[in-house]
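Appendix B: complex inputs.
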Amino acid sequence: MTDGGSRHTRTGPGSGPGAGRSGRGSRRDQQHFGPPGLVGTGEKAKNFKTSFKRLMDRFRPERWLLVFVLVLAVVSVTAQVAAPQVLKRATNDIFAGAMSRQINARVEALGMSAGSWSKEEMVAQLEAAGETDLANMLAGMSLRPGQGIDFAAVGRVLIVVLAIYVLSALFAWLQAYLMAGIVQRTVYRLRREVDLKVARLPLKFFDDHARGDILSRLTNDVDNIQQTMQQVLTQIITAFLTLVGVLAMMFWISWELALISLVVLPVSSVLAMVIAKRSQKQFTLQWERTGNLNGHVEEMFTGHNIIKIFGHQKEAIEVFEGHNEGLYQASFKAQFISGIIMPVMMFVSNLNYVAVCVLGGLRVAQGTMTLGDVQAFIQYVQQFGQPIAQVASVANVLQSAVASAERVFEMLDEQEQSPEPEAAPALKEVTGHLVLRDVSFRYLPDTPLIEGLNLEVQPGQTVAIVGPTGAGKTTLVNLLMRFYEIDSGEITVDGVNTKGMDRDDLRRLFGMVLQDAWLFSGTIRDNIAYGREGATEEQMRAAAEAAHVDHFVRTLSQGYDTIIEEDSSNISQGERQLITIARAFLADPQILILDEATSSVDTRTEVLIQRAMARLLKGRTSFVIAHRLSTIRDADVILVMDHGSIVEQGTHHDLLCRRGFYWELYNSQFAEALQEAC
Amino acid sequence: MKRLLVKYLKPYWKLILPGVILILLQAIAALYLPTLNAKIINNGVAKGDTHYIAVIGGYMLLVAALQTVCAVSSAYLGARAAMGFGRDVRGALFRKVESFSQNEVNHFGAPSLITRSTNDVQQVQMMATLGLTMLIFAPMMGIGGIIMALRQDVRLSWTLGVVVPLIGLMLGLVIKTAVPLFRSMQKKIDRINQVMRETLSGVRVIRAFARSDYEERRFEEANRDLTDVGLKVMRLFAVMFPSLFLIMNLATAGIMWFGAHRIDSGGMQIGNLMAFIMYVMQVLISVLMATMMASFIPRASASAARIQEVLEVEPSIGDPERTDAPAVGEGVKRGRLEFRDVEFRYPGAEAAILSKISFTALPGQTTAIVGSTGSGKSTLISLIPRLYDVTSGSIELDGCDIRQMERAELWKHIGFVPQKAFLFSGTVASNLRYGDPEATDEELWHALSVAQAKDFVVEMPEGLNEPISQGGTNVSGGQRQRLAIARALVKNADVYVFDDSFSALDFKTDSLLRAALKREVADATMLVVAQRVSTIMHADQIVVLDEGTICGVGTHQELLETCDTYKEIVYSQLSAEEAA
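Resulting structure:
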């Protein structure tokens, strides 16, 4: 039952937008549809022991509470395990009462006159008559011949049992309640730590790693850890204690019967593990194939048009059928094997049950055991099965959680960017005088990129960066903003070396408008206000007007409160671009970095963007990744880039006269256009 | 959900029927065990008859074995049927979607279709799995348990009337609280994932504006929300399980008490009391199971409805019954494409997005289509491969109405490069061979060199066999576009359609590509949609669209003089001196 409930909480990334983009995402998805119960994803941690220890270390702040929870669990389980032992006295009393009532008739049927014999007399008489078994059984009972059930005694026992049950429930509840807090707080801390880590990682990390992979670690893996810890910690402690307690009680009642159960224990654990292992294999296969199939479906549906126009439907369906059949085979087997676990465990438990019934029955008949003992024993046998299954399956679940934890720890171990200098000079107002002196930089140690670059930009000047696609025009941006650190040389702003500054302080001097218009999901107001902390409504409006945002926002029914969706179907690409410009206006930086759009924006918006950018540039030192001839020609300095490095530098006129790379580039890009236009 | 289940489970009745019978047997066996135990106590233990105990013990073993065999076989049959069901639904759905035209795909949206064929099918399949096992087993056990309990003692059975509703009520309460909690939890998880996604995608902007603290607050808020809901969910379960056990245990104690009175008055035997207790437990457990399972039904049935919706849609574009094929005389260039007074409106739309479109694109010529966003350029182009069908007028390829052609035949003539260059997972070569599976490596290289893609493919370590990831995310946008162009070129079509396919290319590559196309694909009809004036100003014919109608056809020079819309577009991109 526990599994049925907890499966609800297995909420994968599947239902979110953009679900299943990463392979691992869709596999994890599967988890809450697939296996009934505790089966992991079949992923293995590289270094289980270390990662497991680190994961457990996360619970260190909660250790005293954990100890307390453990105590609660011990009490609860002890009460639960003790209850059948108490209850058996009621059974015995009832049995004795029932026997007492019929015993006279039984004795008379044997040809004796029972009269008003006491228990001892009756036992002696029966023995004399050769009815040894019956005599023995009666000897072990609190027999009151002819009197019936002692309800006062039964009532007392039942009240004690009730009290024990209530106590056990109360403690079980308290324990689970506290455990919920422990798990949630620990995962909460882990999440926060991961988030803070993201803020401290150098940009290189994000450029080097696939976003899907990082995201999957931050979301799917952390989710997986939470789900598993929730299940494992709440169930396993109780399961383990119950196992121990039940076994102890069994031995107390009858060591012979307990030995039988003890044989059952390893048999069923081994059986459970063997089956779990087999189903594990199938589930892994099922996950893989689900991933493949989902990937194929996603691809075919996304490329629906292409598939059609290129006449590939038949192939698409054929491949799909292959995947589908493969998935069917794997999932049928996985389902079947996991479906076997319960019946097989049940069978073993039933064997145990029958053995206890038969042997216990025989012993009661012989008088070496009471009926209450047998009943209690049967209850223990029934309590035995569930925890065995839980303990046996925990290994699998832990594997997957530890594998997830390992991936998260890997991220936490990533090298962080160099710490901010203490007592950094704070530049509040700058003129925007920028000097790059002897700057060298390479992304890869053995591939030189920028060597000994010298550049001086006077306040208010515009630097155009040009070059063919993929020439590495963003490299310079990376260095100016200290997204990457230069290898040697220095960059100064108003004479202050940027290396000695706090990164945030430095970046506040810059404004940036990139081609990919990044906005977060939130209102338009919040997105513009992002440019400056604590901006007033008036300032925000002014920036919006300057960037031609105000006009189209007024046409929206929600105005500035319009929520921008992630996939942003409600505002166009061009409008997004304008909002990012408004954001930069509000930031009002002295130095600007602009990326002229090449992407398809409709012509009217394009005009607005151009005007807004031009207005933004006015009076500021700016670096423009330029695509427009007019921008390039009007620039004070042009940096020509190719294959990652700066190949030429100068004004438009200088560079044309030089008849080098720029000249060639200029001719191919614009001359044709100019000639044809003329 | 019923219709879907009935239709797709029907083929499996040969598995299901014996499965149900086996489950019934399994339930009977499970229910019989306590009765046998009662017999042991009443007739064996109470009478001291050890032989009887051993015999009945043997029966019990047999029954237990039977139960296991039935359970395992029914699990086998159930798994076969349920997974087969899932496979069939998935297959039907996929084939259905493959038959859809763009209309139907748009109606649902590709992401939704993906979820429906993956997650939704899984939900329904899971429902079928549960349905074929536990959902049948639980009521059988429940009803059987009640019957068996009644057989033990009728007068004690009022206790059932108290305990069963009690546990039902409790479960109902739990589910009622839990369902909205789970929904809210899912929302919080989505939210935190969204914040994370944004933090990653905007990492440059966030740092540029030095707003890491703001992001931190956003995340912190989402994290706290999620933790709170998670705590509520766990605490609900913290109450639920102990309470359930408590109810069961209290029931046991209560039945002992009242049963003792029945025994004392000679109404029942002690063995029957113990059996009664066991049956009550079995009934309670099956109620528990049934309720848990039942809580899956709404979710699965929502999924089933979503699947059914797709399966019920008939594709709006199909092949005509009598087909026609363009007949072109010897020596005449193929690929003459004529739009005749074409009108198109999206289904359900009030106004036509295109109307009165008439022009002819000739082989060996380039026809460019320009216009501002929303003027209908992409729609116009998608009419050519019949992604949509015209709502009036006609489009003719070499004199033959394209609606009269078999679609496979039509597509053979068209090389299409979509706005979003979409590549498939595989290799460079496998993507290029989408155009022509038989193409030789030389042909591929030729197409690549025309598409200006040869240089970077040569530089790839594996060359033509370089792996391409799904969607082509491992190559840059510009490379993706050029590969998509090469893919179309491999096809050797009569008509090439480029839907804003040069946008990610820099000017230099753009112009080299156009020159190569002019040289290498001289005989074909070219249709080019573009935003960039420099891309289209050299075209033989430019069609200017404004709000769905043609406002000018001609060459660059002609249009500069006659068409204001065109002038506006040109001047927005080139300064007056550049254009003039």
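The mean pLDDT of chain B is 85.
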